[in-house]
Every structure is written in structure tokens, then in C-alpha cells.
Amino acid sequence: MILTLSWLRNHLNTKANINEIIAKLTNIGLEVEGVKEGSGNMSEFKIAKILKTEKHPNADKLKLCDVNIGGSSIVKVVCGADNARNGLITVYAPPGAIIPKSKMKLKVAKIRGVESRGMLCSESELNLSDESAGIIELKNINSKIGKSFFKSSGEKIVDLSITPNRPDCLGIRGIARDLAAAGVGKLIELKKNKIKQKTNQKIKVSITKEKNQGCHAFGSCLITGVKNQDSPKWLKDKITSLGLKPISAIVDITNYVMFDLNRPLHAYDADKINEEIIVRNSKKGESFTALDDKNYILQKNMCVIADKSGVLGLGGIIGGTRSGTELKTKNILLESAYFDPSSIRKTSKELNIDTDAKYRFERGIDPNSMLDGLKTATELILKICGGEASKFSISGKKVFKSKNIDLNVVKFKNTIGFSIADGETKKILNSLGFKTQSGKKILKVQVPTWRPDINQEIDLIEELIRIKGFDKIALIEPEKKRNKDTLNFQQKLFHLGQRCVSNRGYYEAVTWSFTDEKIDNLVYDDKNSISILNPISNELNVLRRSIFSNLLFYLKKNQDRGFQDIALFEVGPVFFGKKPGEQQIVIGAVKSGQLYKRSWSEKTRNVDIFDVKTDVIKTLNEIGINEEDLYVSAKTKNCYHPGRSGSINLKSENGPLLAQFGEIHPSIVSKLDYKEKNIYGFEIFLKNIPEPNKKLRILKENFNYSDFQISERDFAFVIDKTYQVGKLNKIIKNLDINIKTVNIFDVFQGGNLPIDKKSIAINVLLQANDKTLSDNDLNQISEKIIKEVENKTGGNIRS
Amino acid sequence: MSDLDNILNSFETKFSQIKNKDDLQNLKSEFFGKNGSISLQFKRMGSLNVEERKIFAKKLNGIKDKLTSQIDKKFKDFENQAINKKLKDEKVDITLPIRSIQSGKIHPVSQVIDEISSIFSEIGFSVAEGPDVESEYNNFTALNTPEDHPARDMHDTFYLDKDKKTLLRTHTSPVQIRTMLNGKPPFKIIVPGRTYRCDSDQTHAPMFHQLEGLHIDKDITMAHLKGCLNYFIREFFEVKKIKMRFRPSHFPFTEPSAEVDIGYKIKNGKIVIGEGDKWLEILGCGMVHPNVLKNTKVDPNKFQGFAFGMGIDRLAMLKYGINDLRAFFETDYRWLNHFGFDPLDVPTNYRGLSR
């Protein structure tokens, strides 16, 4: 919504300057989005006179003009307009001026070799009309040469962002009323001039009675014998200050009244109406050409204004070209109607039309403003275009009742924190147009019909504090007290897991929850993707089902930027369905390339599966799961290399799946075309991490240690290549209470070994709590170990 | 010359020719070993009479002490020489680079969420969460935004089905609904989370993060709301005093509603929060609308309170001088490295939120 001080002053008697008004608007909830220097820069556009024209030496269609721009200043301007001629008074734009239409800044330039200082303007170039055939021709204003063409120069244009609850402030008058209530001035009463109205409105208007009828009332006035024409300057200035283009007096007047009183109107060329006006629901397939020159094909049950021949326009949204007014229009039918907000909204959404009228009707117009609108517009039309007006006629509902609300005076204090005097309460409400009647503890309040947003007591309290000022509200410091844990178990896991993975060298990414269907399908390996109805782009068209979908994409992007040896992770949701809650939080990480590249101290090597296995197991340990409770198996899924990946379940093969890890499947790597193809990843499924029923400190065993001598034994076995040595740890440890640790410290294949065998070396630490183990004890344990390992693996001890 | 003088002379001669530790060891054995010349002299003592013995013993002990101390000193010299040589040989180039240990980074959004949680934890708020996919009812209708309400236009919504019954939540406010429906008042929660709007340009991303706050109890007023937000902003920006302004606004789910601006100024190209005469809008808030309470089976005649919502990404941008919102989600390794946080830098109240 646009506001200028001069327009505001038509409704508000105030001495406040524009800055005070801007500050007040902000304080009462009419947010000032910006302030433009209205036609401030437009003041450069001067009224000027062409003294002499001659042909451009190098171009047939161009003229070289000597232009008087005031006083004795004369400049040379190259101009291509046919009507440029000696003695013509027109509009001159100097170098530096910005042409409103093209937004181009003028420079002193050579045109076909001849210097031109500025430009002579057409109406189209100044956004005054579509007229671009020649430059503007001004008449009989010799005395004004050198003066600014735009009168309202320098006036500030305030751009207000009006919240959807305040349709009344989509008119200058509503804003004036709010400002008056806030003490900025006095609201000026609407003029009550009598208009001569002798005849009845002769065109029949009917609103059909049907379900979903979107029009409740249709006010009209027939004005005959008008002479439509260009608007006078004051009106043009108002219309251009709105950022609109002046069209003709009749159209400009309806627009003016809409912005002045928030009362949309529509003017029909009465001679183009076939017999009568019928307000009815559309039939499916009906069509019409609207004033935006588009042809609309209607669904059924849209509220249309029609005549005997068919649809004229969409009620409250847009008129049609068939009955549009033109400069030659003689007789007009003026419409001032009330349309149902939800009907307007539904229709305009389906047809995707947005107009100033629609914007207002869908928010709620004062239904009782039909007559005020007709009156103001009729008066202006008669004044500017002449003609004779009929009496006003209203079809449909004539009076719309006001809402009544009881306001309990203590409720204000209970909500806001301080009390407000009864007198002030009434004063504020009355100045906003509410009627009040005092009762015991209760104030009976009648809501003006222009305030569809006021429906209950709390809305009145809001009005009171809004006008009183939010700065009056005290500030109570919060109490530093906590009765509940801040984080629940899953949230703690999230936080801890995030920090753990990061601490292992991964950079945390936050990527979209949606992703590219192609990558998602590739990673998730089925086609049941979760699509978004209206995605932001085709590359972000589904909800991600794997945490890898985006991570792999961004890993590639970083590789393309020249970073091959990197590690990324994200903690966030992945989805397994379209219903709320069909999602889980996953920690996902990817790592690519090599370690210790170009290091003076370490040997360069590829990232491998045991790097990610280490990262995933360490993270699981740190978020509270003992290493012994992690069951690692070669179970895998499609996004991983089948031979270089694994799963970690809790305690057993069938326990909850805690994590998966491995090399990213070579076919994915190849399809996504990575520069560095050595890529590993892991996922941790936080929801499967069990919440311990006791704190870690309670679960911790007592501190026991032994001071007796520790002995070490190393064993080497030759076993089947396929045997998973990870199992041996537990097997050996369970053999004897005095076995403290078991560590597999070498694995070897090839050499002299048979092709299907591998050699492993195991170190075992032995210590008793109650004595020093004797040679005999140690030998017995060693025997047990050898026997058990040979038994379980089918292998042999190496001699 | 007595034997002793001979021994002494011979020692001096040999001592002066010693070249290394082994020579010295040999010399020591030659004189003090089992059959060394000094040891033999001590054995001789038994054959002397008392007087002679007295004199001889004194002299011999004198020589012994002298020689031993000479030998010990020489040993020490050799040791020192050896250490000095070792030290000299073992000098490293200390300017070589450190071993490459890759340390990770925490994303600024995560860091700021932790900061926010820490601040609200102090005054008794718990962290609540809800799903990213929401019902149209929870996201709009229950929040007093019926289907044909123009306020829905303020949210460019991603839908998941043709009937527009499920969507990606446009704000974290539906968690208010879930929390109140699933519990009994009082409620005191904050909700950090992902939110979505199909809007994408320089200053809008299709996904961003919001922080919702909700405090419902018997006598919570707008004065509590003001105090709570003033406390939060002060703590978050780590300044002693802030300038804060409540401006009336409109959200369907609160009444009265306000937008909150904080004072700032630009100093040396950087934003300084808390002083200056410019205003920056940072959040929206208000008293929870009675209709919302009714929709969640909370009696508005018994309970009331406030709610607020703010953009986490924007808070992070303001606090840490990040200019581009889109960069948050572009996963540029260089950006993550530059703006990311050390994982050990966990925001706490006692150590200070940020370093």
C-alpha cells in the first residue's frame, strides 16, 4: 500500500511531518517497508520549447533540435519524433535523468556522430500512457518553460506492508483513522455534498439465488452523457504515485476511490451491456477476455458478472474487454458490490489472477461502503466528465450488521501486564470507529464493519495495546530455574554424535532435506521415491531417503572445486514415507581420496574401509555403546561395495541395526563421474541406539587391578582366507578369566601360503588377580587357546 | 723414591695419556683393581709396625683420594663429552611442519542451535521437536489459519500430495500444536528445526532453520515475553545491554502479535548489535491466540502465554558476520572450514557461549 502525505491530508487534519508519521505508522503496526522520493528525481524533467529543428547530417529520420530549457539556456538534442517541430513545447530530460520506462540513465552521447545533451520524451517513456508515436505536446504554457513537468516533485512515497488482517488500511482513509486514533491528528469527516440524481437506475441487476453465490450485494449507478477524457493532472499525479498508469478519467477515478476508501469499483460501458446485469455462478467452460488481455476459461461456480450474451467479468477480480470503458464511452454503469472473500480467493487462485480489487475483496471490504464508494466516484465523474447520474440502486443484501463483543476490562491487564483506564479504553476504541457502551466490569463493543479482523475479546485487547504503544509494556526478567531436562536422550545423542564425528576429522554439512530423484534412486536402489508436488527445481524434486543422496552430490562438487581428500558429514532427517513422522535422524559421513598426501613424515595411502570402520565404531563408543556390544558382520546394502562393507548391530546379528559402513558402490561412483573414485561412507541410525536405563557412572564396574606379573604370548595360525578373524577376539577372551586382552596384530596372505589360506598373529596378555601365573598355568592357557582357535577356524598353529 | 712416589709418577704419566672412557677404566683397574698397585699397597700395610703404619696409611689414603677424584672427574668429563656430542648430532629442524591431523568442523547452524539451547536451558526451556513433513492441519488450520485465509499466501508451501493435506512445514509452529496436544500445561519449550518454503533467491533458501518458543502457564503476560526475549538477545549477542523495540504485527496464531527489532550500527564495516540508531527485525512473537489453545485442548480461560519464532540462519549470519544465506547449504569445503567451529568448542554458560 502506497501513502503520500498530501493524499493522507485529504483525510487527516495533522501538523505532523512525514518522518513523524512514518515513525507512528511503525509503532501502530502499519509497517513501513520503504520510503521513495516520489517523483523527486522526476523534478529533472523540465518543460522545454523547441526553438529550431534541422535535419541530422548523418540520419534521415533524426532531427537536431535547439531546445530552450528555461531562461536563456539552449541545448542541442537529437530527436527522432515526427512531431518534433519549431515552437513545440514538450518535456525535456537532461543527462543524468533516469527514464521511468526503460530505467536507463541518460548520458551526453554522440548519436550518429552528433552530440545530444539529453532527450525529448514521449508519454510512454515517462510511463504516462502507452502513447509512443511522438513526443509530448504541451499547450499554452509558455510561461512555464524551465519548470519541472511533474508537480508533485519531491513528495515522499511511503510503501506500507499491510498485514492480511487489516484490509481497512488498504485505503488511505483507513490509515488516516489509525493515525488519528494514535494521536497524530483528526480524521476529517467525509463530505456530504448532494448530487443531483433524478432518474432511477434503468439497467436491471439481479443476483441469482444459488448455492455458493459469491456476491452478496451489488450497488450501481448509471451515468449518462459523460465525456470520458484524460484525467486532470491532480488525478494523474495520484495515480502515478501509486505506481499505476493513468488511463482515462473514468478508470482513474475508480482506481482512485479504491485506494482512497478501500472501495473497489468497476465501470462498464453501459451501451455494451446486453439488456441486463446478471450476477451468477459460471458454468464450466464459459470464457471471456479480461482487461489484462488474457482469455480465461472458467470452471463452474465462479462468481461472474454477466449480461444476456454471457460473461462480462469476474466479480471483484477483473472486468472484461467486451464491456470496458473507452475514451469514446458515453454512458457508464458504475458497480460497487460486495463479494465473499473465500469465493474471490478460490476463483483467483484457480485462475491465477492477482489484481488490486481481488487483493482487497479476499481480505474483506467493508460491505457497508458500497454507497460511499458510489457517491465519491459519481461526484468525481460528474465533475470531470459531466453527465447525469441515476439514483443509486442496491440489489441483494442492503445492510450488513456489526459484530458485538464483550470486553472484560481486567482481561487487558491479565494479558498485557498493566492496566488501562476505562476512559482511555473507550477513547481508543471510539477513535478507531468502535462503538462502546459501559456496563459492570464489561464494556459492550460494537465492531465497525470495515474491521473483519476483530472477532473476539483478545482482538480488542490487541487494538488497545497497539494504539497505546508496545513500548509501554514492562519487562519481567526471566527466572533462572529449570524443572525439566533441556535435552531428551535422542537429542543428546544427536549433539554428542555430531561432535564425535566432527572430532574425527569430518566437516559438518547442512544440506537440503530434498534431493535429486536420480541420485536418490541410485543410492536407495529402488524407484519408490517420495516426490514433492511443487519442487523448487527438477534437481530437488524428492525427499531424500538416504543421507548419502546429497552428501555424495556435494562431495563431487567439492572434488570438482579441487578438493579430493576430504571428509563430510551431516546429521539430519531421511524419509521413508509421505506421512508426518515417517522419517528418522541419521548421521551420515563420506570420506574420499588419500591420507597423508605430500607429507614429509607419513607414507601416503588411500582411505580404506578400516578408516571408516574406526570412525564409526569410535563414534558408537563415544555415544555410549561398549565395543563388546557391537556385532560387526558383512551384511550390507546396495549403495556399498558388497565385499568392502559391513553392518553393526547391537549385541547380535539380529539386534537393532546401529550403523552401516563401507566403500561406496563402484557403479554409483562411476555414474556420478567422480574425479577421485576412492570413496567411503558410513551411516549411524540414531533411533536404534537404546537408551540405557541407568547413568553411565552407575553402570561402570568397580575399579579392580592386579599387581601380579603380566605375561605375554604371541600365536600365529594359518587359517582359511574366508574366516572372519574378528570373531576370535571374543572366542579367546572367553577361554580363561586370566586372559586380559587379545589383539590381532598381523594378517598375511600370499608368499608361501596356499592361495586359500591366510596367516594371522595374535597377541594375548595374561594376568591373574590373586597370584603370579606359573609357567605351568601359562602353558595350560596357551594350549587351550591353540586348541580352541584350531577347532573354530579349522586352521593350524604355525610352527 | 718410595714405592708410593713411583706409583704416583707412573699414574700421572699414564693418566695424561688417557684417550677415552675405556682407557680410563683400564687405568682404574690397574691401580684400584684386585691386584692394582694401590690395592697391593693396602695389603702391604699389615706388615708394618704401628708407627710406620700410621704414617704410611695417611700417605696412601691421601694418594688414593687424590687419584680417585682425578679418575671420577675424568669419567664425568667423558660423560659430558659424550652427551654434548649426542646433543650436537641429534639436532632436528624444528621448523618442519607438524604432522597432518585432520580436525573436523561444526556447521554454524549447529553451533548456533547449541548456543540457543544453552541460553534457554538456563531459564527452564526444554528442546522439543517435530517432523519435517506435516499435516496441513497442524501447519495451518490448528494455528488459526483456515484454508481460505490470505495469511497462507505469506508461506510458499511445498506440498507432497495433490489434495494439499501433507506438506513440508513452513515454520516450526506446528510443534506447538503437537506439544500441547500431547501434554498438559504448563509448557515451556523451544523448537529448533528445519523449515521449508518454495522460494529461492539471494536472500531466501528453500530450506532454512527456525527457532520456535512457547511458554504457557497460568499467568504469563506480554511482560514475560518481553523479558524473555530481552534476556535471550542479550545473552546470544553477548552484550550487556540491548536496544529492543516491539512493533505491532499480525500472525494468525498470536494475538497481540509483535515483530521485534534490535538496535544496531555499522562500525568498520561490521555490524554492532545493541547500540546505534538503526533497527533490525529479528523475530516475530505474541500471546498465543485463544483459538490455538482451544484447538489443542488447552482451556484459554485457565492458561495463557507467549510464543515466538525466529530465523536461526539469520541469527548465525548476524553474530558471525556471514553475508550469504545460500552459502549455508552449498557445502563448500572452504566455506565450512572458514565459518565452521571446532568440535570441542561446545557452547556453555560457564565458559561463555563463543570464543
Number of H/I helices of chain B: 11
CATH architecture assignment name of the largest domain in chain B: 2-Layer Sandwich
Strand content of chain B: 15-25%
What kind of sheet is the major sheet of chain B? 8 strands, mixed
User: What is the domain total for the residues of chain B?
Assistant: 2
Query: Segments of chain A where pLDDT lies below 50 for 5+ residues?
Result: none
DSSP helix fraction of chain A: 10-25%
CATH architecture field of the largest domain in chain A? 2-Layer Sandwich
CATH topology of the largest domain in chain B: BirA Bifunctional Protein, domain 2
Give an overview in words.
The complex is a heterodimer of chains A (799) and B (355). Chain A has 799 residues and is an alpha+beta fold. Chain A has 6 domains: 2-39 and 155-187, 2-Layer Sandwich (Phenylalanyl-tRNA Synthetase, Chain B, domain 1), CATH 3.30.56; 41-144, Beta Barrel (OB fold (Dihydrolipoamide Acetyltransferase, E2P)); 204-396, Phenylalanyl-trna Synthetase, Chain B, domain 3 (Phenylalanyl-tRNA Synthetase, Chain B, domain 3); 403-469, Phenylalanyl-tRNA Synthetase, Chain B, domain 1; 489-688, BirA Bifunctional Protein, domain 2, CATH 3.30.930; 701-797, Alpha-Beta Plaits (2-Layer Sandwich), CATH 3.30.70. Chain A contains 19 helices and 42 strands. Chain A has a 7-stranded mixed beta sheet, sandwiched between helices. A 5-stranded antiparallel beta sheet of chain A has the order 6-5-4-7-10, with no helix packed on it. In chain A, strands 14, 15, 21, 22 and 23 form a 5-stranded antiparallel beta sheet that branches. In chain A, helix 6 (341-351) packs across helix 7 (356-363), helix 9 packs across helix 11 and helix 12 runs antiparallel to helix 15 (609-622). Chain A is elongated, with a radius of gyration of 41 Å. With 355 residues, chain B is of the alpha+beta class. Chain B has 2 domains: 3-89; 108-339, Bira Bifunctional Protein, Domain 2 (BirA Bifunctional Protein, domain 2). Chain B contains 11 helices and 10 strands. Chain B has helices at 3-16, 21-32, 37-44, 50-89, 108-122, 136-139, 174-181, 222-237, 290-295, 312-320, 333-339; strands spanning 126-127, 133-135, 166-168, 187-196, 207-217, 244-251, 254-267, 270-273, 278-288, 304-311. In chain B, the strands form 2 sheets. In chain B, strands 1, 4, 5, 6, 7, 8, 9 and 10 form an 8-stranded mixed beta sheet that branches. Chain B has a two-stranded antiparallel sheet with strand order 2-3. In chain B, helix 1 runs parallel beside helix 4 (50-89) and helix 5 (108-122) packs across helix 10 (312-320). The radius of gyration of chain B is 42 Å and the shape is rod-shaped. In chain B, 43% of the residues are buried. At the A-B interface, helix 6, helix 9, helix 11, helix 12 and strand 27 of A face helix 5, strand 1, strand 2, strand 4 and helix 8 of B.
